[in-house]
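Q: My labmate handed me this sequence with no annotations at all. I'd like to see what the chain might look like in three dimensions before we decide whether it's worth expressing. Could you predict it?
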Amino acid sequence: MKATAKKYNKILLLTCLSVLFSSCIKFEDAFTDSIFEDEPATNTQSEFYPFNKWLEENYLKPYNLDFRYRMQDAGSSTDYNLIPADLDKAKQIAILSKYLWFDVYKEAVNPQFLKQYGPRIIHLIGSGAYNPRLHTVVLGTAEAGIKITLYECNQMDPNRIDLLNEYYFKTMHHEFAHILHQKKTFPKEFETFSAGYYDVSYWQERTDSEAASLGFASPYGSSQPREDFVEIIANYIVRSDEWWESWKDAAAKPGVNRDGVQVSDPLDGKAIIETKIEICRKWLKESWDVDLDALRANVAERQLKIKEALAEGYEEINAYKHNE
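A: Here is what I predict for the chain of 324 residues:
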């Protein structure tokens, strides 16, 4: 699971407003026809048809993957208040998921890798999965190596590579790394370097500075070893050289907490991070014949061409309006 700490103050207000307005709505007017009406797959006049055909050709046929962009209650967590993904945002995520994830493994590993080991379902959710008690929001989950759920899809902004990485592409690589280590476990020595500093209930209070100084690639990575492992991999793949140099520089210094107080710890965070990256690099190569640095180089090159990838994807989708 991928989560992040996120402060929010509008939830209570919105909840109160919803209660206020609900008292003015008659019960028989409170529900309308579903926006997810069942439509025959051959209905070429449907606004969903071109996108459905594109998904069939780019996900279902080559990868045996069901890309679910119309939120399903049965497949969604009832622990959160969730909303569906916007159609246009779903198209952007589908196009860029293929470009920055599936096509990367296709080139850097082999065309069959994700078909064999990848998820069978990708499910998009428009909103984040907020936890009011912990002030956190879940960005993604991986279930039994079968299904990946991506949240906050309606916040997609293709012009912000930093947000694209934080909310989507890092999450994709994070969740896929979970799938891989669920099939072949990672070395136990990995969790010894930051032993004693994992805290599943406190990680959201740690600053980036604290997390780096303890040898983690993110505060969430400090929650437990398996999250640490996949956060190292995901951040290494999508982050720039400049980001990593800045993070390791911070890791070489004592951390500073939310109160601006320097935190004393006996660890060499920079050395630990470098060691963890090497363990991940070796594990991926020996267990999966995956070159971590080749993946990273491929992603870095593709990140420079996001606008072109989106334009090409939309052109392919729109072509189905005229071909049937």
